């Protein structure tokens, strides 16, 4: 089995939730891209949907796949969002933002009637935190914001956190999100109190958004070797 097979199983199973006429939030990352490409095949067969992309990359994938895009400002509802995750913890609490799209992903997931998270089995964890938590911050004063983020992590039970400015591997320059911000990748090890950490991070001036997605996903579709398991919360 390859990770791609498992991702494809999850993405394919998510298509069962798509109905004609829906407005869909289109997630970012390799698993979500597979979903968007499969969606394009359904569109070619006559399905009518409109997609709201969570990143410029997803917009490009959707356009290539033939999925009609809807500017978010013109949407009066979003029926369903399908997106990947970096970690899926208890009660479908997620870490997202490995691809740097967490702000738009969270705005769109939060505005959707239903968010489905799709992933391969490797993303399931008992406790969040092995994956470094992405925190999107305004560029102005980011070194000060980084210190405040460090303090929040310490104050919410994370022992010896590491807070690092994300660098674009190709250019060697700081990574810039679609919204024009920086990302701080926060090595936590174990996030023992995700709700507390989420609330306190949101309160730091300069933090635009963080990658803890709490109480957003209601369905998780986990791909494996022979198919996908649908879990509902
Ligand atoms: C992007 C994300 C992605 O959903 C997350 O990184 C998972 O990506 P992949 O499906 O490639 O493992 O949050 O910001």
Summarize the structure.
With 233 residues, the chain is α/β, with parallel strands linked by helices. It is built from six helices and 13 strands. Helix 1 crosses helix 2 (30-44) and helix 2 (30-44) runs parallel beside helix 3 (56-65).
Question: Would you kindly provide a written description of the structure presented here, covering whatever features stand out?
Answer:
This protein is 30% helix and 26% strand. The protein is α/β, with parallel strands linked by helices and 233 residues long. The protein folds into two domains: 3-125 and 215-225, Rossmann fold (3-Layer(aba) Sandwich), CATH 3.40.50; 133-209, ACT domain (Alpha-Beta Plaits). The chain has a six-stranded mixed beta sheet with strand order 2-1-3-6-12-13. Strand 12 (217-223) and strand 13 (228-232) form a beta hairpin. Ribulose-5-phosphate (5RP) binds next to helix 2 and helix 4.
**Net shape:** globular
* Gyration radius, rounded: 17 Å
Distance between the termini: 28 Å
Instruction: Please give the CATH class of the largest domain.
Output: Alpha Beta
Q: How many separate domains make up the residues?
A: 2
CATH topology of the largest domain: Rossmann fold
Bound small molecules, by name, code or SMILES, are: ribulose-5-phosphate
Strand arrangement in the largest pleated sheet:
2-1-3-6-12-13
Largest sheet data: 6 strands, mixed
CATH architecture of the largest domain: 3-Layer(aba) Sandwich
> How many β-strands, per DSSP?
13
